[in-house]
Write a structure and sequence with these properties.
The chain has 203 residues and is of the alpha+beta class. The protein has 4 helices and 15 strands. The protein has helices at 11-16, 89-98, 103-106, 152-162, and strands at residues 3-7, 26-30, 35-36, 51-53, 55-61, 77-84, 87-88, 112-113, 118-119, 130-135, 138-144, 170-172, 180-181, 187-192, 195-201. A hairpin with a 2-residue loop joins strand 14 (187-192) and strand 15 (195-201). The chain binds magnesium ion (MG).
């Protein structure tokens, strides 16, 4: 399986990083070794001094698809959850400045903690789902899919022009405003609407 992440998909987050508003979805990949499952702890890597949390809604692909039409894209996933797109912001800044790929900042081991998946049928509309991240009991990021620049369906259609989607692939759909550094002993809890689907500690 592969992990595909959309960058710059919520306006207020784009502003906080002083990035340009993309005209089409921006995406990058993480390898399966980035996955962190079962609420296992995240160990801060020693190559970065500025690991940022980015809470995101994640789609799990349920069938093979290539060149998927946007109008049928909703048939390619039936479970969603929340995950963290951990980012070594100090490294990413250097990579951006030099025009180099982001993998060093995004694809490292444990950089994709993944919550428990739930049926998308629990939600009436995909374009009005709230999610948030608490650290040590305090909400630090709060988003709603009504603010997405590129909808889930648009993202699936777009990516599948370039990359065949396969069963079990995960798509991180972008983070809302409020990203920031994590530190040792932080307790992260991510929610989809009111339901806690991910909880782990930074070590
Ligand atoms: Mg992200």
């Amino acid at each position: 399986m592969k992990i595909i992440c959309i960058g710059q998909n919520y306006l207020e987050h784009i502003k906080e990083l002083n990035s340009a508003i993309p005209e089409e979805p921006v995406f990058f990949l993480k390898p399966d070794t980035a996955l962190l499952l079962d609420n296992k702890p995240f160990y801060l890597p020693d190559f970065s001094q500025d690991i940022h949390h980015e809470v995101e809604i994640v789609l799990k692909i349920n069938r093979v698809g290539k060149n998927i039409a946007e109008q049928f894209a909703n048939k390619y996933y039936d479970e969603i959850s929340v995950g963290i797109d951990f980012t070594a912001r100090d490294i990413q800044k250097i990579q951006k400045t030099k025009g180099l790929p982001w993998e060093k900042a995004k694809a490292f081991d444990g950089a994709a903690p993944m919550g428990k998946f739930v049926s998308k049928n629990k939600f009436q509309r995909m374009n009005n789902i709230g999610f948030h991240l608490d650290i040590n009991g305090k909400t630090v990021q709060k988003g709603n899919t009504s603010d997405l620049l590129f909808s889930f369906d648009k993202v699936i259609a777009y990516i599948s022009q370039f990359i065949t989607l396969k069963i079990g692939d995960l798509i991180f759909t972008g983070t809302p405003v409020g990203v920031g550094a994590v530190k040792i002993e932080d307790k992260l809890e991510a929610y989809l609407e009111g339901e806690k689907l991910l909880a782990f500690e930074v070590k």
